[in-house]
Amino acid sequence: MTEAVRVRRGLEEAIVAGRYRPGDKLDLTSISAEYGCSRTPIRDALQHLSNSGMVQIRPKHGTFVSRLGVRELAERFEVMADLEGLCAELAARRMPPGTAAEMTAALEACRRFVQEGDPDGYYDANSRFHRAIYAGSGNEFLRAEAEKLQGVLEVYRRLQLRVGDRMARSLDEHRAIAEAVLAHDPETARAQARAHVQIQADEYTELVLRSET
């Protein structure tokens, strides 16, 4: 894990947990001291957070927290569900053998991380699994849009994996998607992929609501 990724993930979790509130200005000196790194990886991390909508970078003024609300997240998850569903449907029709092997290898890595109880490792393998399906769609525009929105939702999809048995259930959902893709069953692949993302949205919404009570 690079310094920029370490800082980014730490800041993402701090923002989602409410340590930084919407409108708060992020102080680079304090962040540098907390993470024990130079400002270069911090700037890289903040640029990524800006791209995902979690902060706003205002030239000559600084970087400010702009965490997405529950409604805004629900809207993005709704679009993500359709993108994932379409990718899976097309992958069931078009995925080449090499990409299918990548998807299967990522699924096996997910299984190992569930056994080890490692949600961060699981999420990285999970991302490889989904990217293989995006690539398997054979549609580069769709792939780019799916990867872009996946980046926006990354922290929210990652954090819900830490709740209860969510990792194990996510693995079961991945297996159902992979089985449909490999069986060249586009309708089932689409339905399973859409349901998988909707479950993630529901899990994260419940997590937020519990944290606010």
Automatic annotation (TrEMBL):
Pfam families: FCD, GntR. Keywords: DNA-binding, Transcription, Transcription regulation. This is AsnC family transcriptional regulator. It comes from Kocuria rosea subsp. polaris. One of its GO terms (molecular function) is DNA binding. It comes from the Bacteria. Residues 1-68 form the HTH gntR-type domain. Coiled coil: none annotated.
